[in-house]
Amino acid sequence: MTVTYLHASKYGNGARVAQHFQDCLSKRGVQVSVHHISTMSPKNLPAADLYVFSSPGRMGKPIGSMRRFLARLDLPVGSRYAILNTEMVTQPDKKTGRMPTEEEAARWRRMIPMMVAALDGKGLVGVGVDKVYVTDLKGPLEDGWEDKVEAFVSRLPVNVP
Asked: Is residue 160 part of a domain?
């Protein structure tokens, strides 16, 4: 089985997540190639059994380079994908100190729905989504992020020949 992991890490947090993802699957005998989207053509990706996409957020959306990459993506209909994003942890309001409600936070957490819509719209098949939180704009990653990545990997439908 082969997995292609495509990330748009800006400050290195997504690259750390990708590396740990690769390490976890490599121990299971799965071949994983990790690429920053700036080094890949969305129209000429290597053949893989699973594509994993990862983007940091900007104002509740995937960053622009990932949105453009997904819009231009050319994969065979029925290709399987997963999403493992890095997102900012919910912060209290700076003026009032009040934490936003789930409904308020959802307005700023549109990354996964936007990516799923783009990928499903191309006829791809989703097999898993999750996120790892970043505690500040440039990091660090949340405590226990490695366990979260390992749990995500364990839920993926990967078969070792």
From this structure: no
